[in-house]
Structure prediction request, 231 residues.
Amino acid sequence: MPEARFLDADGRTHLRVTGANASGNASGVSYQYVVICDPGGAFIHNGAVAHGTNIASALQALRDLAFTPEAGFFLVEQVSTGVTARHWYKGPGHANANASLLGAAETADVVSWGPGGLTTQTPLHISGAAQIAYSLWRRYVPGSSCSRALYFGSYTGDGAGGVRDLALELGTLFPLFAMVTPHNAKSWVRDPSHAGADSSDALLTSISTTAIVGGGSDLLQVGTTLNAAGI
Prediction:
């Protein structure tokens, strides 16, 4: 499986893959990856907390007390024989403390945040879990006018057929990677390895030609799978 990044003698950054695990290094299998460079922590704040019990709520301070997240990914790391994927996402469209498992619909009372602080709740507090790893994201550095690196937003499906265009704010740039999370179903992702109108569900178990179908300059395109009326 991939390990933490490291620098070689020439100062180049690498991602090292070790072992023969089929999920990360099977013989003859092609793998895709996305690498993001944010050396100053301007847009991304990573960390982890550990509770090991199913307490109802826990507040923890971020290292950067001026960082206010707009979106976040959470992974419950648990030493067990269970096969339940506990990968969560919370974005601008999630009200209150709601969040979504990447392979399921929205859940209430999962996680909330504010400037420099994070409050995790029962669905993230698994008894016996080693820790909760998190990656918190924002579009702007305080005082800046445009990110050009990241965009987070939400929309409500209109139920129309065909392709729907969604406007982005990337300073005329093209999106390289996209994830769309419907609040009633699993998330979908599209990256440079997807050809035509293809995208994959976030757990990488199936491909669709009617989910995230394309993009362009300040543009993301979705099909009927991600445009259900009222969602």
